[in-house]
Design goal:
Blueprint (H helix, E strand, L loop, with lengths): L13 H6 L7 E5 H6 L3 H6 L3 H4 L5 E5 L4 H4 L4 E3 L4 E3 L13 E3 L1 H11 L3 E3 L12 H21 L7 E6 L10 H10 L8 E3 L8 H14 L6 E3 L5 H10 L3 E2 L3 H7 L2 E3 L7 E3 L19 H4 L4 H9 L3 H27 L3 H12 L12 H9 L10
Parallel strand pairs: 1-2, 2-6, 6-7, 7-8, 8-9, 9-10
Antiparallel strand pairs: 3-4, 4-5, 11-12
Helix pairs in contact: 6-7, 7-8, 9-16, 10-14, 10-15, 10-16, 11-14, 14-15
Length: 384
């Protein structure tokens, strides 16, 4: 899911996201906290909901505002009642109006927004925090807040409310992730889908995949599994093998605005087009790509020049390409799953990315080998 935090994917129109065949995104993400701040969810409701407000006739998922407990921690005060934020747009904290976001408030905002998939407000702690007590408090509070979210949900026939698994990096038997999952199993009759939260915050890749693996094995097979905030292509390929269905991340669009194009093939799978090596490169970003940049014949040299001069057209073209690449990636993954050849897809992707140090490329990271082995794909049989 491309991230349109305030109902907008920067530099692209709704029509471009929907009508360009290379993009044609079926769902995007919006952020409850930011929409509540500006322009306010009451206004969005009065305009007919976010779908009508942004002229979007497809799926919308909204985050609950929980992630801001990490990204805006310095502005936040977290209690059992909810989280209180200082206004990030006000310089004087003493005179600025503060926002109280309780589970009930988050749900009211999301009911106003009218998203198709809503997220329960969870107590989010950065995965790299060294505080076992704080993680334990957050895990049990997430369960209590989930009950408050369901009690406050006024449109259950129209909007799906997903629960978010918390518990830090504790994957041991009887650990916090397991306790959170057990709490969700007791509420499974109310929950239409699940998210895996609290990751992509700087933890080791070994810890990362083990949490994903544990959650996917414990969550029901007949309901969506959504890995929050994860968007690197390699992570998507590996985590889909573990059982994840949905992803969102600002990475493809944000990195586009910094001049980085996503491409298939050898790791790291990026072209840093601001680099002088592309000054005289007459190739397009990616052969066969139908994004506005590649289809339009914009060379790497031309994009390099636009980016170096901060021309707004560069952000538009780069964003179009990176979303197109991610849609190309996930459509290929989905097709391989449907055709029961995902193992072959994974092997080709890994072989293309990691040529091996003996061939002048990178070796397959150990965490990738371990994660795929847990998913039933032993790279040792195919890639030394």
């Amino acid at each position: 899911m491309p991230v349109g935090t305030k109902g907008t994917i920067k530099s692209l129109t709704t029509e471009e996201i929907c009508n360009e065949p290379a993009l044609n995104c079926p769902i995007i993400l919006g952020n409850t906290y930011h929409l509540a701040l500006q322009p306010g969810t009451e206004l969005v409701r009065d305009m007919g909901g976010l779908h009508k407000f942004m002229h979007w006739d497809r799926g919308i998922l909204t985050d609950s505002g929980g992630f801001q407990m990490v990204s805006l921690l310095k502005l936040a005060e977290i209690t059992e009642e909810g989280v209180t934020f200082d206004n990030p747009f006000e310089k004087n904290a003493e005179t600025s109006e503060r926002m109280l976001l309780r589970p009930e408030d988050s749900i009211t905002h999301q009911n106003n927004i009218g998203s198709d998939i809503m997220m329960a407000l969870d107590d989010v702690v950065s995965s790299v925090v060294d505080n076992d007590e704080r993680f334990e408090i957050a895990t049990y509070r997430t369960l209590r807040w989930l009950d408050r979210c369901f009690a406050a949900h006024s449109r259950p026939q129209e909007q799906n409310l997903f629960a978010i698994v918390q518990g830090g990096l504790d994957t041991q038997m009887g650990g916090l992730r397991e306790k959170c999952l057990a709490g969700f199993r007791a509420r499974d009759h109310m929950i239409p889908g699940y998210a895996i939260g609290g990751l992509a915050g700087g933890e080791s890749k070994e810890d990362f995949w083990k949490v994903v693996d544990q959650c996917c094995k414990a969550l029901p097979d007949d309901k969506p599994r959504y890995l929050m905030g994860v968007g690197y292509p390699l992570d998507l390929v590996v985590c889909s093998a573990l059982g994840v269905d949905m992803y969102d991340c600002v990475y493809p669009t944000r990195t586009a605005r910094f001049g980085v194009a996503l491409v298939p093939g050898e790791a790291p799978g990026t072209l840093r087009l601001k680099s002088n090596e592309f000054n005289n490169d007459e190739r397009i970003i990616m052969e066969g790509c139908a994004c506005a940049a590649c289809k339009g014949g914009y060379t790497r040299s031309r994009l390099h020049t636009l980016l170096k001069r901060n021309n707004p057209l560069a952000a538009k073209l780069m964003t179009s390409h990176n979303i197109a690449y991610m849609m190309y990636l996930v459509r290929g993954m989905r097709k391989a799953v449907i055709e029961d050849r995902y193992k072959d897809y994974v092997l080709k992707f890994i072989k293309d990315q990691f040529l091996g140090s003996e061939h002048g490329g990178q070796d397959v990271p150990e965490w990738v080998r371990n994660a795929l082995k847990a998913a039933g794909i032993d790279l040792g049989e195919y890639i030394p």
